[in-house]
Task: inverse folding
């Protein structure tokens, strides 16, 4: 798949790169993503770099905002805020172990591959987890990590799930 086709899969995506010189790490709420974040935080400590934690979301995957009433459709801004709040809650326990690392949280209304590639455009490194849940081609890496390795403009560190060893 070409990068142009890959990046055109989500035409309405609103994705901006993370702050320059940051380590960008994708976090989908999984244990594997938390291991990738822990690795990124360890590297950031050594490098004196900031970390941008990103989560991709869609209307289907977004948590419903606090105070949401059944039968109403939350706005995109409300959904983005709910995703970012969920992301912050998911990573807070791990971030407490690295108080000296500057961390930002970003929720991207786009697919995970596009979000990670675009968010890391000006980053020093992209860190992703790999659960290996894709098809045969993605047995070693996951489908998202495989695409990030292929198309990201910065170095990509893939943190494997320890249970795969």
Result:
């Amino acid at each position: 798949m070409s990068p142009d086709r890959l990046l055109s899969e989500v035409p309405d995506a609103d994705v901006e790169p993370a702050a320059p010189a940051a380590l960008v790490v994708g976090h989908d709420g999984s244990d594997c993503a938390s291991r990738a974040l822990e690795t990124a935080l360890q590297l950031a400590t050594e490098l004196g770099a900031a970390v941008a934690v990103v989560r991709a979301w869609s209307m289907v995957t977004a948590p419903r905002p606090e105070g949401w009433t059944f039968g109403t459709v939350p706005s995109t801004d409300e959904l983005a805020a709910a995703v970012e709040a969920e992301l912050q809650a998911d990573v807070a326990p791990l971030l407490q172990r690295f108080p000296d690392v500057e961390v930002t949280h970003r929720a991207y209304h786009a697919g995970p591959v596009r979000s990670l590639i675009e968010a890391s455009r000006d980053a020093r490194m992209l860190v992703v987890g790999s659960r290996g849940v894709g098809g045969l081609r993605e047995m070693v890496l996951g489908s998202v990590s495989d695409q990030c390795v292929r198309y990201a403009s910065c170095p990509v560190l893939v943190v494997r799930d320890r249970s795969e060893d």
The domain at 32-164 is CATH 3.40.50.12370 (Rossmann fold). The first strand starts at residue 23 and ends at 26. The CA atoms of residues 5 and 11 lie 11 Å apart. The chain has a mean pLDDT of 82.
